[in-house]
Design brief:
The complex is a heterodimer.
Chain A: H1 10-18, H2 24-37, E1 44-47, H3 51-63, E2 74-78, H4 105-111, E3 116-121, H5 155-162, E4 168-173, H6 179-184, E5 188-191, E6 211-216, H7 219-229, E7 255-259, H8 260-263, H9 270-285, E8 289-293, H10 301-316, H11 334-345, H12 348-360, H13 367-387, E9 393-397, H14 413-418, H15 424-429, E10 433-440, E11 446-452, H16 458-468
Parallel strand pairs in A: 2-3, 2-4, 7-8, 7-9
Antiparallel strand pairs in A: 1-3, 4-6, 5-6, 5-10, 9-11, 10-11
Helix pairs in contact in A: 7-16, 10-12, 10-13
Chain B: E1 2-3, E2 6-7, H1 17-26, H2 33-50, H3 83-89, E3 93-94, E4 97-98
Antiparallel strand pairs in B: 1-2, 3-4
The chains are: A alpha/beta, B mainly alpha.
């Protein structure tokens, strides 16, 4: 049976598989064909070489009546998520040849359902970027316009789902790296509540900010993927909140808060603003009331983020030293070995953030920068929680612009950073947030609607998201 | 700047290439002089932007954001995996040991 993997949902594919209208082999071949057709977009860095074995196992499960929702479903993994026995390089030269020696918790959880892990996807090196231009493998391209970026840092994971080369994928989100590429490629991208998805086996960037999350074509699939990965494996893994502590009381507010100052700021593309307002109107028709709110701290979020994240990543990247794994360059002594290995193994943006991180953590500046930013996070969280006393979600566009041109922002790092304005608050506070496709520009570029919910409030994101995604 | 016999690297807000050199050294990064010049320009601009935050006055009790560190028991858990596989990952290894340049006679 011929299917269009650019359109079919996980639920629909599952039905076809269990009703034997579609075999796992056929589904895999369709997806592989799409991957081949779209190779130039560089969604996948590499396909895994054990797909045939996985196909066989998944089909057996279906034939034995043991299939679950994700059995036989083609999935892709960002290059910073470990799958035992396979390469994972965070798109960095410094991890050339590194093979994972254990499964990340998310992969172990998914494995129980016997999906098809198709391959590892392209990303900005060590998740540092918003365009997937800074990969040692070269840039990924937006399927809607190949001269444009697919967003980042999880651009490859977005590309493979948008092109039907996978039915869902996992990315990681530290400052918007799932949600922004989702908005640039017409997908649903979810950053779960901090602590609901294990970070064990995710190469750490900003440990207090990172979350793994899914890319899917629709909200229903996002929920399926979220449920599959939001386990609480605490046996060897201290990065997940126990299920019993994941408390969320849904209110009947039916109100959507919009931070008025930010929405009216200059850098926002007029088509983005128009689409955002149209989406709000559709939500009003869906029974929601739009309320403007004043969040004076919100506009400082970016500054706080670009202090905390480089600080944490410079610390996390200290382990890459050419000694225990990856790329090594000899030096005249141990210190020089480190300097050469890291100086040449890390790309430009990575080194920039390490330098920045060292600065904000250095003596004499630690208090004014890092400490202050950490205090700010608590204050921001309190400020947003006050809004959640009367509103269900905080809404903004996902990105101030649609997908920009490849090369447009590479010479000005700060302009790239400023694009994260709507997404970073959710990482700073640990709150869950989602980007849902909300329409397109007149030239056909996708746009995304962004919502942040209270901690553990993913269900609200899914509920309202279902209305947003309706045509 | 020296504190108790230990040199502490400090950087001034009037960033110079020397500051970049010291910060890169902290991060064990070898940089070319072109790279130093580029980073000097970038870091100045970024720090100027993020410095906004130091001007904010924040509420007194802002330190507690509700998160707690989760620690495991301080007990030895024998490694269940294959150390051979781990050692094989090292760029230089010999007889089951990771090898490094001599640390003491540098």
């Amino acid at each position: 049976m011929a299917i269009d993997t650019k359109k079919i949902s996980i639920g629909e594919a599952h039905e076809l598989l269990v009703n034997k209208e579609l075999s796992v082999r056929e589904l895999a071949d369709t997806v592989l064909e799409k991957a081949k057709e779209t190779e130039s977009l560089k969604g996948y860095i590499e396909l895994y070489d054990d797909i045939d074995v996985q196909v066989k196992t998944a089909q057996e499960k279906i034939d034995n009546g043991e299939a679950t929702l994700l059995t036989g479903i083609p999935l892709a993994l960002k290059d910073n998520i470990l799958r035992n026995g396979f390469l994972a390089t965070a798109a960095s030269k410094i991890l050339s040849g590194y093979k994972a020696s254990y499964d990340s918790t998310v992969v172990a959880a998914l494995k129980k359902e016997n999906p098809l892990f198709m391959g590892r996807t392209n990303m900005d090196e060590f998740a540092m970027g918003g365009s997937t231009e800074r990969s040692c493998y070269g840039p990924s391209k937006n399927p809607y316009d190949e001269k444009r970026v697919p967003g980042g840092s999880s651009g490859g994971s977005a590309v493979v789902v948008a092109t039907g080369a996978a039915l869902a994928s996992l990315g990681s989100d530290t400052g918007g790296s799932i949600r922004q590429p989702a908005s640039f490629t017409g997908l649903v991208g979810l950053k779960p509540t901090y602590g609901t998805v294990s970070r064990f086996g995710l190469m750490a960037m900003g440990s207090s900010l990172d979350q793994i999350g899914p890319f899917t074509k629709n909200v229903a699939d996002s929920r399926i993927m979220y449920n599959a990965i939001a386990t609480d494996d605490n046996t060897h893994d201290n990065t997940s909140v126990p299920q019993i502590k994941r408390i969320f009381t849904k209110t009947k507010n039916k109100k959507i808060a919009v931070p008025k100052d930010i929405i009216n700021s200059e850098g926002i593309d007029p088509e983005v603003k128009k689409n955002f307002e149209e989406t709000l109107t559709r939500l009003t028709k869906g029974g929601y009331e739009i309320v403007e709110c004043d969040l004076p701290y919100l506009s400082y979020s970016l500054a706080a983020y670009y202090i905390v994240m480089p600080a944490e990543s410079s610390t996390n990247l200290a382990r890459f030293d050419g000694v225990r794994f990856g790329y090594k360059e000899d030096g005249h002594d141990i210190k020089n070995l480190y300097e050469k290995t890291r100086g040449h193994g890390f790309g430009e943006e990575v080194r920039r953030r390490i330098i920045l991180g060292n600065f904000v953590l250095s003596h004499g500046y630690y208090d004014a920068f890092y400490n202050k930013a950490e205090q700010f996070r608590a204050a921001l969280r309190d400020e947003i929680n006050k809004v959640f006393a009367y509103a269900d979600v905080l809404a903004t566009p996902t990105s101030p612009t649609p997908a920009f041109l490849i090369g447009e922002k590479t010479n000005d790092p700060l302009s790239m950073y400023l694009a994260d304005i709507f997404t970073v608050p959710a990482n700073l506070t640990g709150m869950p947030a989602i980007s849902v496709p909300s329409g397109k520009t007149t030239s056909g570029l996708p746009l995304g609607f962004h919502m942040t919910a209270p901690h553990f409030g993913e269900s609200v994101l899914f509920e309202i998201g279902t209305i947003v995604e309706r045509p | 700047m020296e504190i108790g016999g230990v040199f502490v690297y400090t950087v001034t807000m009037e960033f110079t290439e020397d500051d970049i050199t010291r910060l890169a050294e902290m991060g064990r990064l070898e940089l070319s002089s072109e790279e130093k010049a580029t980073y000097l320009k970038d870091i100045k601009a970024i720090v100027a932007y993020v410095s906004e935050i130091s001007k904010l006055s924040l509420p007194e009790n802002s330190h507690n954001d509700g998160t707690v560190n989760v620690l495991r028991e301080d007990i030895v858990i024998p490694y269940a995996g294959d150390t051979h596989t781990l050692i094989e990952q090292a760029p230089s290894h010999e007889d089951g040991y990771v090898s490094v340049p001599n640390l003491f006679n540098a």
